[in-house]
Amino acid sequence: MGKNLTVQKRGKGSTSYASPSFKFRGSAGFPQAYPENRIGKIIDIIDCRGHTAPLLKVEFPGREEILMQAPDGIKVADEIVMGAEAPCVRGNILPLGRIPEGTQIFNIEGAPGDGGKFVRAGGALARITAKFPNKITIMLPSKKERDFDPACRAMVGEVAGAGRTEKPFLKAGYHHFAMKARNKYYPIVSGTSKNSVSHPFGGRSTNAKGHATTVSRDAPPGRKVGKIAASRTGMKR
């Protein structure tokens, strides 16, 4: 008699894999852009279990309060300037077209006005490597380069919370609770290491299965594992 795979149990929607979003402080990102510069004041620096970096609570004119990732070296009562004419100093928010080459930035928008999608983890930073009239080339923390629209905004500086990954967990239990706080699945076990009742690739007889690890997009539940609808496999030559 078989049983559900882990991916099926997670998709069921039970409390075992539910996200503890009710304990999150809120979503972090840039406020709506305005034609003129806006000056916000940092009223608090808070910790959120859903983010790896500390968050700033910034109050803009009109009593609009926004959460955003904190840059390294900033403190309560400092001011953040957002706009095309803002000075390029730590903590300010500018369009990429207004930021000089070589500047360290983070929380980069993927499309103008989306609030920031790239380089948001604690201690992360990116760097502008080239500027063109219609695109800005940025080196991400993975050392890969990506082109962005010059109208996309970013914050100058480096995300606070560097060194987070340097401290070892020491025990699997500590890692378990750290992942559970952010709704991350842990531990991840390969299918070939499981029993045959738990996974189509499982079983101790051999690691070389008698069928392909690629599977159709229309495969039924319980068989839809491995390389789903892969266009190609193997090393690219």
Tally the helices. 2
DSSP summary, beta strand count: 12
- Separation of termini? 43 Å
The name CATH uses for the topology of the largest domain is: SH3 type barrels
Q: What's the overall average pLDDT, rounded?
A: 90
Poorly predicted tracts of residues: none
What does this protein structure show overall?
By secondary structure, the protein is mainly beta. The protein has two domains: 6-17 and 183-228, Ribosomal protein L2, domain 3 (Irregular), CATH 4.10.950; 22-164, Roll (SH3 type barrels). Helix content is 7%, strand content 22%. It is built from two helices and twelve strands. The strands form three sheets. It has a six-stranded antiparallel β-sheet, with no helix packed on it. A hairpin with a 3-residue loop joins β2 (55-60) and β3. It is elongated and about 65 Å long. It starts with 5 loop residues before the first helix and ends in a 9-residue tail after the last strand. The model has no long low-confidence stretch (mean pLDDT 90).
Descriptive keywords:
237 residues; mainly beta; Ribosomal protein L2, domain 3; SH3 type barrels; 4-stranded antiparallel β-sheet; 12 strands; 22% strand
Q: Would you kindly provide a brief summary of this structure?
A:
This protein has 237 residues and is mainly beta. 7% of the residues lie in helices and 22% in strands.
Summarize the topology:
Layout: H1 6-12, E1 38-46, E2 55-60, E3 64-69, E4 79-82, E5 93-95, E6 104-106, E7 126-131, E8 136-139, E9 145-148, E10 153-156, H2 172-181, E11 214-215, E12 227-228
Parallel strand pairs: 11-12
Antiparallel strand pairs: 1-2, 1-4, 2-3, 5-10, 6-7, 6-10, 7-8, 8-9
